[in-house]
Amino acid sequence: GLATLGGSTYEVQISMTNTAIAARDVKQTLLANDTDGTVRSGTPSSLSVQPGRTSVVKAASSFRGLVELSGGGELRYTARLVGTGPGRMGVYLPVITSDNMIKAGQSIALQGLLSGSGRAVAVAVINLAHQAAQCTASLTRADGTTIGNPTSTLALKPLSQLYIPDVLAGGAASEVRVSLSCTREFFAFALVSDAA
User: Fold this and answer.
1) How far apart are alpha carbons 1 and 10 in whole angstroms?
2) What is the mean pLDDT of the chain?
3) How far is CA 122 from CA 107, 141, 150, 162, 166, in A?
4) What pLDDT was estimated at residue 75?
5) Is 128 within 8 Å of 135 (Cβ atoms)?
6) How many helices (H) and strands (E) does the chain have?
7) Residue 73's closest CA among 13, 15, 14, 18?
8) Neighbours of 153 (CB within 10 A)
9) Bridge partners of 25?
């Protein structure tokens, strides 16, 4: 979808490249934020990507959540947040696959996060299982002291994303670490925005 920050507009674009010698159909399902992704209504949209070609898709401007793509092993995907104003280059977004998902019970750390002076940190936690998950999260400064509650518990619906805007609540901080662990397969990423 579209998002505005500091007077500039950004949109998510997903590129799909077909490395096969024949056309491949890609099915696209939109999973809205914090909803049960196993409950589907309607038919997924489909796009045919010609051999050796790349197609770019964009979700509706008001959509917030995950885009689930399926279409075969010959397809390669990238996602990016693109700035539409002058000088706004954007940033690549993670593409979640079975190769980079985090196994249940494992911990990860999102490091080097900073906020203040127009910057804010958002964290997205994605439950990749077809069952609900419980995740634990903590925020730690570089010196090892915790920010806020020592541990917070997050409840995630099946196949869902929980987007937490401004996890540092507008406070100024640098080199903050978010530690996460979930009871099901998951993925997480942080997005630092700068309104300047």
Assistant:
1) 8
2) 88
3) 19, 16, 18, 11, 5
4) 94
5) no
6) 0, 15
7) 18
8) 9
9) 48
Nearest of 9, 13, 109, 3 to residue 62 by alpha carbon: 3
* Residue range 183-187: mean pLDDT, rounded: 97
131 vs 159: CA distance, rounded Å: 7
Per-residue pLDDT for 2 more than 60?
no
| Cβ 54 vs Cβ 75: under 8 Å | no
How many degrees, rounded to 5, is the angle at CA 189 between CA 187 and CA 193?
160
pTM strictly above 0.70: yes
pLDDT in tens, 146-174: 887 778 999 999 999 999 988 888 788 88
Strand (E) or helix (H) holding 93? strand 91-93
What per-residue confidence (pLDDT) applies to 86? 64
